[in-house]
Fold this protein.
Amino acid sequence: MPTTDLAPYHIVHATDLRPGGGSAFEHALAIARDTGAVLSTFHASVDGQATRPMPQAATTLERWGDESTVEHRAIRHTCCDDPVDTTLDFLRGAQVDLLVISTRQIGGIRRLLHDSVSEAVARNIDTPTLFIPFQGGRFVDEERGAVALGSVVIPASNAAEAHAALHVLGGLARRAGWSGLDFVLLTVGETLPDELNLLPAASETPVRILHRQGPLVEVIAKVTRDLNAKLVAMPTRGHDSVWDMLAGSRTEQTLHTIPCPLLSIPVHD
């Protein structure tokens, strides 16, 4: 059951209304149901898609056999010729606690040639963003709508990143009443920083540490598969270098190599 003594929570599901994007809506709806949040489904109307139907919370809940109610708003917004600019225009005028958006997990040279609208939006907002792959792993059951997270991998290189991720994840878990979650703090490098080694004892959220060596993105993907993790929660600072601008931040590179959704969590120095 959701915790009712917390501040109002607003989830935005951004959709281009293309076929195959229903998984993102189902994740947004399940999280809104469990947390008692208001859910807004948003579409940037810039390319003649305004006639396509918006997903409906009541219809999906009925299909799940779920008698819960979720306050759901369907919003179409027009301001610019570009879907990224239109989406950002809406988000900057709204109080958003979590953005949920679909993404196509393509890598290699194809990714360099085709910029992702979802990633372009996420890197320009200061909001946790949950990326749901069009095809691939999920943590919301398609038939019944149940949330099954289990292990969550949290890659972090310092205490600030770890605390930012645990703050967002712990807040969601408390709101939703989710239990039995396995938060795995993954550190990658030659040595384990002392500040991270001491974190489990100081953290309000139960967490265990896993230390590995190797290329960061490859290690994250391997650990995610080994643990059969249902989510990677990755602190991000956006694009920090010229290479990041070309190939994507470490978060964006990770998004295209893991078999599950990714929660991007902005971190400030």
The CA atoms of residues 84 and 121 lie 6 Å apart. The chain has two domains: 10-133, 151-266.
